[in-house]
Fold these 2 entries.
Entry 1:
Amino acid sequence: MSESQLWDDVDDYFTTHLARDDDALEAALRDSDAAGLPRIHVSATQGKLLRLLAEIQGARYILEIGTLGGYSTIWLARALPGDGHLVSLEHSAKHAEVAVRNIARAGLDRQVEVRVGPALESLPKLADENPPPFDLVFIDADKVNNPHYLEWALRLTRTGSLIVLDNVVRGGRVADPAETADDVRGTRAAIEMIGGHPRLSGTAIQTVGSKGYDGFALARVRA
Ligand code: SAH
Ligand code: DHB
Ligand code: MG
């Protein structure tokens, strides 16, 4: 058995018992596929982790950068209390349209707002509205802008907020000295920023599973 087949099988086992997709999540993936969206959403076990992290945070306000078809959005929004709110930023109007339908079918349209446009344009607009500080920020868009997204996340959060950065390993490319691609540079800059920033305390964890070999970083905003 290949290593990645083994990772798939174990992820399937954990998913079956711990993170099974319900009708709304299944339909979200089906319609994302049908619309031709890339299959780069978080896995079910990762989605469940996002939900748990938001619940542990007691999150009332969540910011997501990179909506795609709304799969991670649905997992995150399910952690919210009735008066909670999630803002998700998505560049592609097509992705956002699919996401809005998926989110509505999950019964979360009252709590979730998808804003279309490049996140680096949406973020200053959002800041101008003086929103309450976000309790959790999930950064999962174009990796080249990760350091900018991290800067904005710092501006839009409070002491104790949690920032989650997806795809920080990319098959090991992050630590390959020969690798100079923009997305890897962006991720390295974000990792090094977390390591050196007086207001951030963070770590990064490598993962295997149905999404291959990758990982995520967690950073807590401190005083
Ligand atoms: N969080 C999603 C996956 C997001 S994939 C999930 O796990 O279900 C990355 C998304 O970021 C894509 O939909 C892509 O269109 C979007 N994106 C890329 N560049 C962007 C930008 N500059 N601003 C906002 N979104 C962007
Ligand atoms: C890619 C982006 C993601 O957010 C992800 O989880 C996996 C892959 C990508 O751009 O290839
Ligand atoms: Mg991702």
Entry 2:
Amino acid sequence: MTDEIALDKADYDFQHKHLLGLADYTKEDILYILEQAQYFREILDRAVPKVPTLRDKTIVNLFYENSTRTRLSFELAQKRMGADVVNFSSGSSSVKKGESLKDTIRNISSMKIDMVVVRHESPGVPHFLTRCVDAAIINAGDGAHEHPTQALLDMFSMQQIYPDLEGRHIAIIGDISHSRVVRSNILGLLKLGAEVTVCGPKTMMPAFVKEMGANVSYNIEETLQWCDIAMALRIQLERQDEGTELFPSIREYHQLFGITMKHLDEYPDFTIMHPGPVNRGVEMESRVADSDRSIILDQVTNGLAVRMAILYLLSGGTRI
Ligand code: NCD
């Protein structure tokens, strides 16, 4: 069955051992991953959506921060590829980068692990792990730094509408300052030649976005009129030390930056995305999330295919 999958690493020299962030990946690396993901996306539509590609691999999912779809998506991707999977979740926010993490990792590495998928509230933890263990490390989100697999699945989803993202107008709207999704998306999208505009309250607009090469707007109407795709981001109250002080109220935020049904009527061309979880009635009206302009659930399915492709490429295994 897997012979039908024309995966051939020989046609591109994919050099990476880890996926720590898209800062380290070239345009060619990204396009190659997205191309491989297409094969896995087709597998997901089969009656038996499984391949034995990782059957000799052991993977640990190390989640120090809450996660629903990213953790499930990784686990499902690993199981669909026949890997042995061990899950470690820590609901405790007191586990910080340092000795306790190092100890956990040392214990894990003595179990002969091939790959570690890690999510942690501290930026740089995935990089730190590369120095502690010999396994391939995949960053599933490190603080407000990067979330590369999310950005890859976002780009894959965009490509299903616009196969060539060169010159496309992508808007990212919401809590820019606390978002790791925005950083990875700006890095990836600019490498693929898209134009990126970030839009949100001034108090949530960090200087780094302009330095990275994105445009900045504080006007949602202007942004929605301009864009081909509007990706809304969750207001990350858990990452705001100042509570809700960055904007007067959730209601005012929604009035100024929420996507509404009226916007869909006024600007008929843009597609809606969101990495999830959606705060309905905040980033967008509930009906907007469920409308036929939204590809939010497609993003989740595509996430599985993209993560399968990444696991395959980083596993160093041979095609079966
Ligand atoms: C994002 C994350 O965790 O950074 N969600 C996700 O991975 N699906 C965005 C968010 O939490 O709002």
